[in-house]
Amino acid sequence: MRHNNGQKISSYCRAVSPTLVALAFATAAHAQGSIDMSGATTLMTTFKTTTLEIIREGAERSGYAVEGFAPSSKAAGQLRDAGISSSTL
Prior knowledge:
The protein is mainly alpha-helical. The protein has helices spanning 2-31, 38-61, 73-81, and strands at 67-70, 85-88. Strands 1-2 form a two-stranded parallel sheet.
């Protein structure tokens, strides 16, 4: 079972690597003032949610209960988007 989780994570990393490299270049361009980063922020939120989903699924398959605690209601909402019950601190 762990092997399948490792394959899923590895597959995810291979899939998102090109986009993360592009975001790194976009970030550098933004720092120079030549690009707007609003689309990149949305994309990074999507990656964050997908990564949390993969981690949650693996932990639950291993018998762990997953709970989230966040500093703000927006952050708690992002955890809930990933299927993690959460509340603010």
